[in-house]
Amino acid sequence: MNPLASNNRSLAERDLRHLWHPCTQMHDHLSVPMVPIVRGEGAWLIDADGRRYLDGISSWWTNLFGHANPRIGAALKAQLDTLEHVIFAGFTHEPAIELAEELVRITPPGLDRVFLADNGSAAIEVALKMSFHYWLNQGRGEKNRFIALSGSYHGETLGALSVSDVALYRKTYAPLLLTPILAPSPDAYEGEDGESAASVAARRLGELRTLLERHAHETSAVIVEPLVQCAGGMRMYHPSYLTGLRALCNEFNVHLIADEIAVGFGRTGTLFACEQADIAPDFMCLSKGLTGGFLPLSAVLTTQQVYEAFYAEYSAGKAFLHSHSYTGNPLACRAALATLQIFRDEPVLERNRGLAAHLATRLAPLRDHPNVAEIRQTGMIAAIELVQNKARRQAFPAGERRGLRVYLHGLEHSALLRPLGNVVYFMPPYVITEQEIDHLVDVAIAGIHHAVRD
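Structure (tokenized):
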């Protein structure tokens, strides 16, 4: 590295000559700063000029126990001395075996088989294909469609995007995608005046029943993000919807896929969001926090019944022939094991409950803000819905990019806040302190005042 070219400006210039960043209109960087990060410390990121940013979004919801966490780092360093990678077809290794055993132990009962992949979208692809292939192996090849919730987001590979309903991501590629059957989201924000979250859930379950009565014969699975539809705007709903959904899937003989990629590992107040409805899905997709934010890894857990539908003589042609070159990477598995060990050794969920309560207290005064339609929270996820007209819940025009103003204000005041459109949200690492939460909220409130004026 050239020591004369290691400040923010020089690194940004080098970046913009060659790199193409995700979820970004690169033209924006004519005015929006590119921020080169050189190291992380706990909940903080430090740029090449020494400025610090409190990571209020856990670096896209991945970091649980802080940047450069020493326990996870030490586990990775030890693994580097023995095995970095090996083909996972016909070969195995102890980190993957231990990880599978631990995931089976901590997830809802009945999820006894673990298929490893590289990232969240890949996990969704695996679950969709595995569900369809299960029915095909059972002689039910007509069950080749999926039911997803309106406003849902499950990833950006073609299969994952096919069961997503966020127009920003889906619209351009619609000609390439499968067409899902959309069920109305139980999003409590969309409830009628005076309607409780539980009542919204019950009403939406009735509408889902109608869809299943019409389409169950051709449906492989219903796929949902339990409790929080994250990229769709941090929309939240009552756990009773999941309870009723599990019953409907049983009644109509379709699979239930729980996308816990963003909401798993303590984000919603329990280790897994499905626990709050006391249900076990047929497929559970995990990623993001699985490795504490260190390395890409995902896992799909499923039942012994699903596994046995593929278990046959080679000549039967029933094998699940899906692979990734880095499946079961030992380094990623070891990082995941170190992450899960922290959950075992420390009172993570108890501490999170205290932090979540503090966050709720600090956000409460914003309920009276004339441009805040709702503050909603599930565990360590909180969101503020900014609107142009509070009485009518009229959104700001998307082209005004009010959320971008909050983001830029945050960068100027040592905070990484990256709103989803006009939804300002918090999903911080679990190592954050109450004082650091105060800083995030103070910056967000000032950023909101700045964003909605004029």
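The first strand starts at residue 37 and ends at 41. The longest helix spans residues 197-215.
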